[in-house]
Predict the 3D structure of the following.
Amino acid sequence: RESRGVEIDLIVQKGIALDAIEIKSGATLANDYFTPLQEFAQRMALLQPPVNVAQYVVYGGEPSQRRTNTRVLSWRDAYQVAAGAE
């Protein structure tokens, strides 16, 4: 957590890229689930060299889906992050 309140639940380094993962127990997606991921990815893109960030939300609902810049995974499909599935 930063002093500005931006918090990411899990960050996994994969070579020179990062996976940023928000984990939510709710079964219904909310827009505010995506805000910390977007802010983090924007900051990492400003670094020299820029750092690519794959964004994930794991939630308690169904189904898994793709949003604009974020892969949304049902808790049943969360293993796909570790497996590197796209």
User: Anything to note?
Assistant: Residues 35-45 form the longest helix (11 residues). The radius of gyration is 13 Å. The mean pLDDT is 90. DSSP finds two helices and five strands in the chain.
